[in-house]
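Note to self: keep these together.
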Amino acid sequence: MGDFQHIDGYVLTPQGFVRGRLSQSAGRITAISGEPVSEAQVRHDQPALPIVLPGFIDVHVHGGGGHDTMEGGEAAREISKLHVRHGTTSMLATTMTAPMDEIRSALAALGPVCRERDRQGARVLGVHLEGPYINPGKLGAQPDFAKPAAMQEVSELNALAPIKLITLAPELPGNLALITELRAAGYQVQIGHTLGTYEDGVAALAHGAQGFTHLFNAMTGLHHREPGMVGAALAHARYAEIIPDLLHVHPGAIRVALRAIPCMFCVTDSTAAAGQPDGDYKLGRHTVTKCMGGVRLPDGTLAGSTLTMDQALRNLVGLGLEIADASRRVSSNAAEYMGLSDRGQLTVGAWADLVVLDRELQLQRVLVEGEEIDLA
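Structure:
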C-alpha cells in the first residue's frame, strides 16, 4: 500500500501521549509534534482520533496461518504475514526441540528470511532457540529430544541464521558456565523448561541469564517453603515472558507477575493454528489440536497458543492496565530486553514501526519500517 509521510492522532511517545502528528521519511521517524494529553483524554476526547502505538514485538513465535517455523523459510514468511496483520512488526522465529539435523535444516531455511523482509510481513529479527538445551523432565509440549548444550554447536547454528535468544535449563550439568559464555558471545539467555530450584534460578541470573520463558509454564512453581523457579523470577527478575491468552496463566497470576517483575513483556507462543479454524496442526514433530480457544497435545497438555499480539494488548487493558502500560508490555519492554534501541518506541530516529487503533483497540493500520501493510 506504499509509504506514508504523516499520521495524525494520539501518538504514544516514551514521555506519554501527544495529540498531534508523527512524520517519517525512508522508514524512520523524523518528527513528532503536538500537545501532551492524559490517557483519560485519549479514552474520552471527541472526536475520537486514532491511537498510534509502537508496533508489537514478539520474541516467541512458533507459527501462524497454518505454518510452523520448523518447516523452514517459506513457512516463516507466511507466519510473518499472519502476525503482521495483527500488529506484530518484528519477531523472533522460534524453533522446537528436535533432532539436530532438523534444527539445522530449519535454521538454514530461516537465514534468508532474517536477512530480507517480505514487504507484507513482519521483520524477522532472528531466531529464538527454545531447546534442545532443556530439562527432559519438563518438556511441556516440546518433543523428547533434549540434549546437553555446547558452545560450538550454538556457533554452528548461528552461522546458518542469527540466533538472538536461547532458552535453557540452568540446573543441567555445564549450563551455568555456558550461560556466561553465551552472554559473552552476545546471545540473550533465558530460563525455561526447567526443574530447577529457586537457588538454581538465582545462580542462573548471577551467571548472566536475563529472563524467563513463558513465566509459570514449564517450570517449578511457587511454594512458600520451596519457592522454585517461579519464586526466583518473582523475587529477582527484571524481565520475563508471559502468555496473556488468559488460558496459560490465570489473570490473578498475571497480576502477581505485573507487580513483581518491572519489565515483564508479552509473547504469543503462537502455533500454526493461530488465525486458523479448529482442527489439527503441526508443532514441530507433534500434531496438535485447536479447539475451545486453545491448542493441546492428545493428552491435554497445552501446546502453544492461538494468541495474537493485538489480542494480548486488549487482554491486558481488560485486566485494568492503562493503554500506555499495556503498550510497553507488548513492545518497548521486549525491545529493551533484546537491546533494540530503534524499535519498540515512537521517537525521532527510530524505525517507523507502528500500529494505528480505534477507541476499542481494534487495528486500523500497521506500518513496518514506514511501509503500510495490507490488512485485507
